[in-house]
Design goal:
The chain is an alpha+beta fold. The chain is 17% helix and 38% strand. It has 3 helices and 11 strands. Strands 7-4-9-8-11 form a 5-stranded mixed β-sheet, sandwiched between helices. The two termini are 26 Å apart.
Length: 208
């Protein structure tokens, strides 16, 4: 049966969990198996990664260029071009404040104008991680000496480049950019530019 077009909207729902077992708990993530009651009264096990969530930033300058950084990602054994991004690891912190911190720490920029660009679940078949990607404009570099953040591990020697938004779209569609936040953010920003970003939600819009 086809659903009316107006019904094409994600909605919260929680099926009964008969039991839950944590197999691993790490610094950021844990791995859990839930026994879930399906339709027809069948109980099926579902494994997934519990994640605190993330934020990312499409930083767009007055030349319609998007800021990108390159970082090593060990699970996929690649150097990936990405957006400034980070974990939701500060209790009670508004998401746009965390995004602004990531933009400052990873790229050395601040922005005066913020909007919510897109919300997404990174990989809902295997993790509960949700991300909010922001559009940041009216950018300026942080004054030298203002930021005392020390880059460590994969963040050492993390170059910053500016790419025309249209070129970033082409690279995403040609399979040259793989990071899911980057692909979603770039395509969303390009689509939202059609009306000058007038239809975007405010930075503090609630998550559904």
């Amino acid at each position: 049966m086809s659903a009316p077009e107006t019904d094409v909207q994600d909605a919260p729902e929680e099926w009964k969990v008969v039991s839950s077992t944590e197999h691993f708990g790490g610094r950021v993530i844990s791995v859990v198996t839930d026994a879930v009651l399906m339709h027809g009264e069948e109980v099926v096990e579902r494994d997934y990664v519990v994640h605190p969530g993330s934020v990312a930033v499409v930083a767009l300058d007055d030349q319609d260029r998007v800021l990108m950084i390159r970082q090593y990602r060990h699970p996929v054994r690649r150097m990936l071009w990405e957006l400034p991004a980070g974990l939701r690891d500060v209790e009670g912190e508004p998401l746009h404040v965390g995004a602004a911190r990531e933009l400052a720490e990873e790229a050395g920029y601040r922005a005066r104008t913020w909007h919510t660009l897109v919300d997404a679940f990174i990989s809902p078949g295997m993790t509960n991680e949700r991300t909010r990607i922001f559009l940041a404009r009216d950018l300026s570099p942080l004054p030298e000496g203002e930021l005392d953040f020390v880059h460590r591990h994969e963040e050492v020697d993390m170059p910053v480049v500016w790419i025309p938004l249209s070129d970033a779209v082409r690279r995403a569609l040609e399979g040259m950019i793989h990071n899911s936040q980057a692909v979603a953010g770039i395509l969303a920003a390009y689509a939202a530019s059609a009306d000058g970003f007038a239809s975007l939600r405010p930075a503090d819009a609630p998550e559904a």
